[in-house]
Amino acid sequence: MIVFLLQRVGQALVVVFTVMVLAFLMFRFLGDPLLAILGANSTGIQRDVLRAELGLDRSLVIQFADYVWRTVQGDFGLSYRLGTPVARVLAERAPATIELAATGMILALAVGIPAGIYAALHRGRFGSHLALAVSLVGISMPSFFMGLILIWIFSVKLGWLSSFGRGTVTDLGGVWTTGLLTASGLKALIMPAITLSVFQIAMIMRLVRAEMLEVMRMDYIRFAQARGLSSRSVYVNHALRNTLVPVITVAGLQLGSVIAFAVITEQVFQWPGLGLLFLQSVAAADVPLLAAYLILISVFFVLINLAVDLAYYAIDPRLRADVAAGGRA
Amino acid sequence: MSGRPPMTLRTGKTLRTGKTLRTGVTRRAARRASLLMGAAALTLLAGAASADTLRIGAQADAGTMDPQAQNIQTTITVLSWIYEPLVTRDENMAKAPMLATAWEQTDDTTWRFTLREGVTFADGAPFTADDVKFTIERSQAPSSQFSGYTAGLTVNVVDDLTVDVVTPKPDPLLPDRLANIPIMDKEWTEANGALTPQDLKSGEESYTALHANGTGPYVLESRAPDSKSVFTLRDDYWGEMADDIETIEFNPIASDPTRIAALLSGELDLVIDVPSQAVARLEASPGIKIEQVDEFRTIFFGFDLANDDPQYVEAEGNPFKKKEVREAISYAVDRDAIVKTVMRGLASKTNQILAPKNNGYLAANDEAPAYDPEKAKELLAEAGYPDGFAFTLDCPNNRYINDEQVCRTLVTMLSRIGLDVTLNAMPRAQYFPKLWERDTSAFMMGFNSPFADGMYALETMLMSRNDDAGEGIYNYNQYANPELDAKIRSARDELDAAKRTALMEEIFSEITDEVLYVPLYNQVLVYAMKDTVTAPVRPDNWLEIRWVTMD
Questions:
Q1: What is the pTM (predicted TM-score) of this model?
Q2: B547 three-class SS
Q3: Residue that is last in its domain, among B221, B250, B269
Q4: Which of A199, A239, B108, B432 has the fewest CB atoms lying closer than 10 Å?
Q5: pLDDT in tens, B99-109
Q6: Nearest-CB residue to B203 (from A39, A75, A163)
Q7: Structural domain range at position B458
């Protein structure tokens, strides 16, 4: 188990370093960060002074080495666009994105898994067809369009929900802000969470259905049924449990991409999270912020993968047996 | 110069108290007066108006609370609610007193400003000449985006309420320049260690990025970047306001449809960045009104006028150096069609690079040649390019309204006269550095003069390049004509206002005649608001909060 964890940490470092290299190379094509600092109308002299001051006139390799060195020390620098420390900006914005992504994923699992089971167990029924048809819409509709439709109905026409922002947030000890403790914060979460989860609901539902159908054909299900176990016990304890391994893998990876790609949803609802920050930073060629963001996202992905691997142990007893017998993880 | 601030209250405006307001008295002052008189009923009625909150929606947030760190209109506008310059502008864009009550030129290079008495910063400190000196010197730092406005100035404090500003050469535009420099409190800024607008090198955040302390009507109550900033009215504001709106909420909403939906759903009262495709729908919506004005932003195209073999042109020699070719391009552009279809009517066509209401603007120069592709072809043949030629047009895709679409339309129009144009559209973060390097043969540009005066455009876009003198710094067409330089210089150094204007008008006519640029149109600026809100639009897209009223 420890070997396994060490391997994972090693892999994580390789991934993060690769991201740094790629990010650094990519930024060369993003444009000149001096535009963000000085604006479109600046003189050549001003630019030369600042370029030298920021060390942007040094060779790429030295800039990169310098960057890695400072990053290792936990210094991500100042955002060119905002003039505030990058680490603090990211820490301020992360809660909004994490709350949104977590709510979206919980919603996706809470709706997607039961709907998938239903569609698998009741093949051919009207409800099952309906669920499949709706999920097809969910998979094919772009999320910005979905968001705008929701805004149109619930904000403009009905006036029930706020079309933008996060509502009133509560500050928890200066390290986390949450919108979950106020009525306006909860209301503000509804539309973005639905927008973000529609695709995930559809995908999880289809995945659970397919896996469930597969498992239901297995011999041990038939034996279990033959033993006279209740259908509930068969479905939940035997069939669903075996269905969950691929579902957890996919849901875990999806959580990563939900965080990374909440960009569109955050833009539509002006959700003050990392995605919105990312978009605005790209437009401004805010290199220190973008680099730190990409590193953060790669760390997220690595951690989620790790969590998914660990979840296998909990769900699949064979893996535990393997390790106990000295097998490789 | 009168000692009164610029606000002109609409005459005949009645208060809720039923009394007609005399110009020069704010509602708040009226309220206070009524309090003193002990007229309780009047107080109650007038007080009812003070619970107002004006919720403003904009495309982007103010990037910082430091008044010298970002020369971006949204930031400037938001900060103008907190901070105030010496000189401001009235609704006709004429200069008007703000923190200075009067100014005069005492010799060719010295301007004397008389400062307003009794003004305090939000933290209670008095406004004095030291603050003016400190602010102007701070704005000269390399990391200031306003150093171009104050380069070379020396400030001498004469007494607490008088300063002399010395310019390196005679400069009739000095008061206009200082209209862009909001005054900060010396003691406050020093006490908080914010001696430069931003210090990227040390990695230390400037205190002023998040905190503000100005002489203006509002104080920053709370700020969540990219989310919401709240401003509250000062009780002790020295100046006049058209209304006494207690709270301003500034909501950046990046997505166009969401911003418009928020206005329609009643979550916003005023939207200052209205996408052109939404205007028609908003006009048709009950309870919503539109205010618009020709913006100080002229869109035009420029071409390499220097190199004999331009990098991105496939032709014998440099066709753009021939006036006939530039004329041909101007004839080949159907400005009416671009204004009508691409800009949805929210632009006014022009043939000069200066927008109306700027000093040096002549309405006659707006007269653009009528669309005439045949004539354009003739001109091309005359210039020796009967079969046209090929070139690459550089164009931003996130800087001006519909920029890429306009360029695309232009490409199509030019193909009709045999010009084979390749469009190279890119984000502004790549576009401007490319122009800075003069790495372009044909480009799109939108320009506004920050001083409501054409000299800045002449100096920076038409003079031969000389970075040290600040001349030709944006002449991306690399034009260099000593005769024109001399003319611009003589206009620049002319201290007689009428003569100077006449000289500039002459120069702008010459530029139009010579087709040194091919201008297309002036953007139209649109604000959308609830019927109950009045917000006059300033052509430089500066939302003057002192003019806004709300019932």
A1: 0.81
A2: helix
A3: B221
A4: B108
A5: 999 999 999 89
A6: A75
A7: 295-524
